[in-house]
Design goal:
202 residues; alpha+beta; two-stranded parallel sheet
């Protein structure tokens, strides 16, 4: 009985700590501006968690690690995507796909900075493809809170934005919501965002 009480106490303590952590949705335009000041180095390519058929290329700087997905073999894929990892912004996924009759544009906060931090023990410039892929796998299994913004939800066929937790738990959510919907809703603005990531890592 004591063991059960202890186990329950530990679980409740973990939940309490998780809920006490500050989840912040940083502005996408701030992320875009930050990338312009970074100097990236190509670290290699390989299969990463979530992308099992086409290799991703890894680039790192002092404050960021970026996977350019659908990188190798180099072909004209209908999808384009980047996984951006940083202590300041968490993990942000940018993804676009040319569907029949519409181009789907997504911005996703896959991991918030506070929840990502314990997994980034090594400096980002020392990161490897396999090491970061392992972190992505571990985080997926934890199922932390996330937010998404898209111009085209495939179920409703309409724009959609939301989170897996109540938005009042997330700092700056209102600004992130309006800004991200503005970006994904405009083809040229979204293209500029994607191109700025590509220019940063070249």
């Amino acid at each position: 009985m004591k063991k059960l009480i202890l186990l329950a106490t530990l679980v409740l303590s973990t939940v309490a700590v998780s809920h006490a952590q500050i989840l912040e949705a940083r502005n996408v335009t701030d992320l875009q501006k930050s990338l312009k000041n970074e100097k990236f180095t190509y670290k290699g390519k390989g299969m990463i968690f979530g992308f099992e058929t086409i290799e991703s290329c890894l680039y790192t700087s002092q404050n960021f690690a970026i996977f350019k997905n659908y990188c190798f073999p180099a072909e004209p894929y209908p999808a384009r995507g980047y996984t951006i990892i940083s202590r300041q912004f968490g993990i942000v996924d940018l993804y676009s796909e040319d569907l029949t009759g519409v181009v789907k544009r997504d911005i996703r906060i896959s991991e918030f900075p506070a929840l990502l931090a314990p997994y980034l023990s090594a400096p980002l410039p020392e990161s490897s493809v396999s090491g970061l892929s392992d972190i992505l796998r571990k985080l997926y299994e934890v199922y932390n809170p996330a937010c998404w913004s898209t111009n085209f939800d495939q179920y409703t066929q309409r724009p959609d934005v939301g989170c897996t937790v109540p938005s009042d738990r997330i700092e700056n959510y209102s600004n992130w919501e309006s800004e991200s919907q503005w970006i994904v809703g405009d083809e040229n603005i979204y293209a500029d965002l994607m191109d700025s990531v590509e220019k940063a890592i070249k």
